User: What shape does this take?
Amino acid sequence: MHVWYWLFVFFLGSSAYAVPLEIIYPKPESDSDTRYNYQWELLRQALAITDGDYLIRQADTVMSEERLVRELASNSRRVTIIRDNSSKALDNLLLAIPIPLKKGMLGWRVMLTHQDQQPALRQVETIYDLREYRFGLGQGWADKPILLAAGLKVVEGLRYDGLFQMLMAGNRFELFPRGLGEGVAEYHARKDRYPDMVLEESFVLRYPYVEYFYVNKRNKALAERIELGLNRLIENGTFTAIFDRYFEQSLRLLNLDTRTIIDIKNPFIGQVPYLDQEEYWLPHYLNRKGICDCQ
Assistant: This one.
């Protein structure tokens, strides 16, 4: 009786001082870099709807996408979760949580460009037409090999904010491809600073490009918790409600039903296990919202 009492007191005391699960996500590149606010809100909601204490915070320093992958793969604890796009290479290094965070929307690309380019761009109908232009991307961005595999020209910039300056300078590249939600938000955030920048209006470049959360391969418990939480958010409607808040207005502004869709392949994509569940994907969302009968 005496032994069991002290064991009970020991474990009760230990649990009182247990360290909560710490989740460290990447720090934005600048104060104006709001690209991933949606993903981190989803993450918080997924954690909140599942059991267990946790702490969530930004990383202490800004890191490139390549460095984020290295830090996470090495389990350095400088970052414990990232968002990135499904690839065979990433699947070998990290543990994917294979819920498509943006319904595959990031593979639908509209272009920021200089207004002087728009008349010529209205004539673009095929991938062959796009090979006449140069595309600007950040250093190490995962879509670079996809565009190169399609025969497109790519120019890299070191800094995210600097890509807008390079685009407007006009001597490095003519097109800055952005995900559907990104393009509208970035245009409105910077149109006063760059009055000659426009959101190209006539086509969408589309390829399979699925964004997931990734954790270290040894962190299976965290991966399972987040996947459970995301599926619960899908089931109770919270996932779509958050998606609506961030992206519905932008999607309606893009006039997708009037744009030419130019499809290219993504030979590098990794696992995509939910393809047969249409509610996870953008065409179902667009059709249900009456935005576009896009297939």
